[in-house]
Give the backbone structure.
Amino acid sequence: MNPTHLALAMLGGALGAGLRYWLGAALLQKFGSGLPWGTLAANLAGSFLAGLLFASLAQRGALGDALRALLIIGVMGGLTTYSALMLELMAFQRGGQPERALGYLALTLVAGLALVWLGLRVGEALRGPVPASLG
């Protein structure tokens, strides 16, 4: 384990969590609490940005590894909200809204996958092809 990369991931995680908090509060104020808009926006934006960053940082050697730790593992890891998504789905289910839970899950997964794909394509258009493996 690289201690510098660990520190970068931790710093990025704090930044991403702060961004997620800000986004959630802003969208709650703007749209209300009918759906967890902040979680949805964080997951969808994070999906696109993760794809874009992965494509942009591919084949950049040590600098790319450090930036991946900071931006993808850290910031995107702190921004995206899988555990919050699961809790919100459970809240819909327990609140007698299983259809809303299913719709929210489907929207998150389908749109998130589409945005990762789009982010990768945009990144490749800007930087060139990337390896098939995410590892």
Remarks:
- The longest helix spans residues 98-127.
- DSSP finds five helices and no strands in the chain.
- Helices lie at 3-31, 37-57, 61-79, 82-94, 98-127.
